[in-house]
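SAMPLE LOG
Freezer: B-3
Tube label: C17
Construct: single chain, 288 aa
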Amino acid sequence: MSKVSLKGVCDMHVHTNPDLRLRAYNDFELTDAAVRVGARAIVIKSHQGFTVNRAYLCNEYNKKIHGDNNFTMFGGVVMNSVIGGVNPVAVERALKLGAKVVWLPTQSAKNHLVKMKQDPSKGVDIVLGWKIVPELNEIFKMINDYDAVLGTAHVSPEEAFIVVEAARNAGVKKIVVTHPEWWIVGMSHEDQIKIVKDYDVILERCYAQNMGGGKYKSNLPDNLEIIKKVGYKNVMVDTDGGQTENPHWELALEEYMQYLSDNGISDDQIYYMTRTIPYNLLGIKEDK
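STRUCTURE (predicted):
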C-alpha cells in the first residue's frame, strides 16, 4: 500500500491550549505542525466559546515565523452557556470576526449532561416541544449570510434531526453532523444513513472517542464501515484531536488516512474526504 500524504489536508475539528483541559499543542504549536506537514487548513475548536480571535493570531504568527505558505487557521463559535447559549448577538460577533463554523452546544447540551449523569436543567435548550427555539432561526439566517457551517455538536440524534430539518428549511447549505459515532451523541448507523439520505449532510467521522476516565477507543473500523454504507462524498475525515492521551494531531490524522488506504479506500476518495469536502465548507479554492 502507498504511504499517504498530509499535503493539502484540512481538519475541521482540533482542540488546543489555552483550554480548561490540558491539550497536546497550543495554538502556535499546532500551526507549526500544520506548516511542517503541508496542511492547507485547520479549524480550532473550544468548548469555551470563540476561537476565531485565536485563529487570527495563528495566521499572523504563521506569516512572521514561517513566511510564505498557504496554511490558514480558522475558528468558530460554540453555543455553550459560556456565551449565553443560543445567543444571536454572540454568534453575529463571531461571524463578523470571521468564524467559519457555528456549533450547537457541546458540554452545555442537555444530551451531553444526561449522558454524563449531570443536571440537564443547567443545559442549553435548542428544541422545545419538537420545535427549535426561535433564536435558532435568527442564527440560521446569519449562517446563510456569512456562508458559514452549522455543526450539530453534542446534541441527541432526535434533536439533530429536528435542527437539521429546520436549518434546511431555512436555507442553510452547509451542515455537518459532529462525530455521530461518539457514545455521547450515539447516532446509529441507520440514523446516519437516514440523515444523509434525507438532508444531504456531511458526517464528521473522527479518529477516536473519549470513553471516560482518560480512556479512548479507536473509531477507525467503524469509520471504514460507515464510509462504505453512506458513501465517501458525505463523510469528512477529521481527528477531534488535541488530547494528551492520543497521538499528536498530525500523527493521528496520518494513521487514520493510512488505515483507510490500507483497507481499500482509494486515494481519490481519501482526497475527497480530507480536502474537497472541507475546502467546500470553508470556501477554499481547490487546486488539484
